[in-house]
Amino acid sequence: MGMLIERAFRRALHSTLAVVAVVSFSLGTTSAILAAPDDSPAASPAAARGSDADFGIPQVKFINEQIRAGWAAFNVSPSKEATDGEWCRRVYLDILGRIPSVVELDAFLKDRSADKKLQLVNRLLSDEHQEEYTRNWTAIWTNILIGRNGGMEENSLTNRDGMQKYLRDSIARNKTYDKMVHELIGATGDTAPGAANFNGATNFIAGKLEEEGSQATAKTAQIFLGLQIQCTQCHNHPFNDWKQNRYWELNAFFRQTRALRSFVSGTDDVRAVRLINEDFGGQGNPPNPEEADIYYELRNGLLKVAYPVFVDGKEISKSGYLEDVVRRNELADLVIQSEYMPKVMANRMWGHFLGYGFTKPVDDLGPHNAPSHPELLDYLGKEFARNSFDVKTLIRWIVLSEPYGLSSRGTSGNKADDPLLGEKPQFTHFYLRQMRAEELYASLLVATAADKAVGSYEEREKEMRDWMRQFVFAFGNDEGEETTTFNGTIPQALMMMNGDLIQKAVNCEKGSFLHSVAMNNNLAAGAKINYLFMAALGRKPTGSELSIANRLFAARGNDTAAALQDIWWAVLNSNEFILNH
After folding, report:
1. Are 156 and 207 in contact (CB under 8 A)?
2. 3-state secondary structure of 484
3. C-alpha–C-alpha distance, residues 193 and 211, integer Å
C-alpha cells in the first residue's frame, strides 16, 4: 500500500498529497470490504431469484437442489445474490477472459427482461463473441496441456504456436470434447504450422516421451481421467489401491510412439519434430513383437512384465505390430468411453467457474480424495456425456446455477465455509480469486479501450506473451509440472503500478482513453468519475469514494485531466480491479 500511495504522491501537487493518499487507501482496501461479512437478512435461496431460478433448465435445477441440500446438511446458509453488475463482470471474465466494457455493462444493467442472464450467457457463447471466447479458452487449454512455458524452452520438442493453432481451430468450431481428447491422444504428424504433415494436436504428446514416456502416461491419466498416477511409476500408491503394475500397463500404450527430430544443418538445434507410430518389439531379449512386453522393477528388485491394459482392466492385443493394433488409438477409444473422462471435465469446469472443484485438485478423482458433492459430480459427468460432450452446454449449466450467482461477501451463517482452512467447499458464497495473468492483460485493454487497436491475432498474441513474462515464473517439480502463478506478490504489484501497460492506461495525451473521458463536455465531473469506476470495477463509486474524489478535484484546482489521472491510476491498482468477485 505504501508504494501505491507513494506513486500517487509523485503524481499530485504538494497541496493534494493528503487527499490522494485517502483516495489510494480507499480503493486499495476494497478486497477487505468484499470479504467482510454481510449480516443483513438474506432472501430464502428459492425466492432469491424468483420464478427464473432454474431458467427452465433441468440440469440447473438439479445443481441448485444438490447445493442447497449440502447447505442444509452442513447447517450453513447462502450469501445474498450478487448484484447485476457483479454477476455481469464475473461472467464476462470467466467466459471471455476479460471484464465487460462500460457499454456492455450498461446494456445489461438496463435490461429488465426476466431471463436477461440466460440471454447474456447465450450471447457470450454465440458467434458474436467467438473470437474472444476462442482466445480465452485456447490460452486456458494451452496451459493445461503443455504448461505456461511449454514450447518456449530452447530446442523444445513442443511447438507452442502449433498447439495453439490446433486449439484455436477446434474451439472456434466448437468441436466436441470427446473428439478433441481422441485427437490429442492419438495424434501423428508434424508439430509446427506450415510443415507438410502439420497436426497441432501432436504437441500434447511430442515433448512428453522421454524416460519411456513417463510424462505422456502421467499427463494423459491426470488431465483426461482425473487420476494422478505418477508416483506409482516406482511403487504402489500410498493412499489407495492403485498398484505399480497399473502405471506400467497404461505406459505400455505409448511404446509404439516416437518423436522424430530433424536438425539445423551442422548444429544440434532442433528444426522440426514429427510424431509417428512404429512397430514395437518389446524389451525382451530377443525382441518378440507378437507379445511386445515391457519390464519394470519392484522395490525389492524383482522384475515384472506389463502389457497394455486400461485403468478399468480392459486389455487390448499384446502385439507390437501396427498392422495388428495401434495402441494409442485404442487408448484414445478407451479414454473417451470411460466414466472418468466426462466426470473430470465437469469437475475442471466447475472449478474454473466456482473457484474450487468438488475435489482439490480438480484432476485428482482417486478413491483417497472424496468429492464434496459426489452425486452432483456424477450427474454432471453423465449429463455432459449425454449432451454429446458439448462444452458450451456444460458452461451454460454452471454459470446459470444459484451458487455461481451468489455474492462474494460471506455472512455469519457461512463463515465456516472456508476452503482455505481445509474445509470442503459448500459454495455458500462466491470465493474471491485473483484474475489469471491473461485475464488481467485483456481486462486492462478493455478498461482503457485499447482492445480496439488494430493488429492481427498473432501480433496481439505476441504482445500479450511479452507482457506476461513480467508476471509468470515457472519452477519444475518432481513430476515435471510447473508451479506458475500470477499471485499479487510485491514485484508483480510494482510492475502493475509502474509497467508500460499501466503507463499507457493513465496517459492523458490527446487521443488517449483518459483524454477522451476528461475532454467529454457532455459529462459532468461526477459522471466522469462514475465512468472510470464502471470501466474498471463494474460499479459506481460509493458516496464516500465520490466525496473524496470531489475533494481531489478541488485540490487539483479543478484540473480535470490531472484529477482523473490520479483517480484512474488508483482504481486500476486497487485490489478490487485485480479480483474476480
Report:
1. yes
2. coil
3. 27
DSSP character string of 461-481? HHHHHHHHTTT----B-TTS-
Cα separation, 51 vs 532, whole angstroms? 35
Residue 12: CB atoms within 10 A of its CB come to 23
- Angle among Cα 97, 200, 382 to the nearest 5 degrees reads 60
Q: State yes or no: cis peptide before 361, omega within 30 of 0.
A: yes
E-strand ranges in 167-323 read 189-190, 257-263, 270-277, 294-297, 303-306
Query: Which residue type occupies 341?
Result: M
> What does the alpha-carbon distance between residue 369 and residue 376 come to, in Å, rounded to a whole number?
16
What are the grid coordinates assigned to 187, written together? Answer: 495424434
Q: What is the pTM of this model?
A: 0.89
d(CA 478, CA 183): 28
Q: Where are the domains of the chain?
A: 1-33+434-581, 150-337
At 170 the pLDDT is 98
Residues in the chain: 581
Radius of gyration of the chain (CA): 26
Helix, strand, coil fractions of the chain, as percent rounded to 5: 55, 5, 40
Q: Convert 61-83 to b/e letters by CB count within 10 Å (16 or more is b).
A: bbbbebbeebbeebebbbbbbbe
User: Which conformational region is residue 125 in: left (phi greater than 0), alpha (psi within -120 to 50 degrees), or beta?
Assistant: alpha
- CB–CB of 528/568 below 8 Å? no
Q: Residue 277: phi, psi to the nearest 5?
A: -110, 140
Helices (H) and strands (E) in the chain, counts: 26, 7
Instruction: Identify the burial level of 365 via C-beta atoms within 10 angstroms of its C-beta, where 0-12 means exposed, 13-18 middle and 19 or more buried.
Output: buried
pLDDT digits (tens, 9 = 90+) for 243-292: 788 889 999 999 999 999 988 888 888 889 999 999 999 998 899 999 99
SS3 29: coil
Structural element, H or E, at residue 210: helix 210-225
Q: Which helix (H) or strand (E) holds 251?
A: helix 244-251
Cα 80 to Cα 414: distance, rounded to the nearest angstrom: 11
For the stretch 51-83, pLDDT in tens is: 357 999 999 999 999 999 999 999 999 999 999
558-561 own/partner pairs: CB under 8 Å, 24+ apart: 560/518, 560/525, 560/528, 561/508, 561/514, 561/515, 561/518, 561/519
Q: Which residue has the cell 497441432?
A: 200
Q: How far is the C-alpha of 536 from the C-alpha of 339, rounded, in Å? A: 42
Q: What is the pLDDT of residues 501-534, one digit of tens each?
A: 777 777 888 888 888 898 988 888 889 999 999 9
538 residue type, one letter: G
CB within 8 A of 119, min separation 6: which ones?
111, 113
CA atoms within 13 A on the CB side of 451: 18
Residue 297 has pLDDT above 80, yes or no: yes
Retrieve residue 150's grid coordinates.
511449454
* pLDDT over threshold 50, residue 139: yes
Identify the burial level of 269 via C-beta atoms within 10 angstroms of its C-beta, where 0-12 means exposed, 13-18 middle and 19 or more buried. exposed
What is the SS3 assignment for 549?
helix
